[in-house]
Amino acid sequence: MDRYGLDRMETWQGEEWVVRQVGGGAAAKHYRCPGCDQEIPPGVAHVVAWQQHMGADDRRHWHKACWNARDRRSAKLQRSRNAPRY
């Protein structure tokens, strides 16, 4: 079981990724998951991931299920015209 707030390293698409579990109590903002292009509302536990060489400024917030299924997801999701961009 993963402990919240502790970073771990994972390899994906030939790159090293820093992955951190965020507990629901620490999730205070809205985020948009790059895996499904749906909103992650405040209070929902999720995963934060970024490429090791890119740094934390390039981190992305994923639903845990989307991160686990990232190899089965399309790389070219289309955002609807009315979707917020955050």
Automatic annotation (TrEMBL):
The lineage of its organism: Bacteria, Bacillati, Actinomycetota, Actinomycetes, Kitasatosporales. This is Uncharacterized protein.
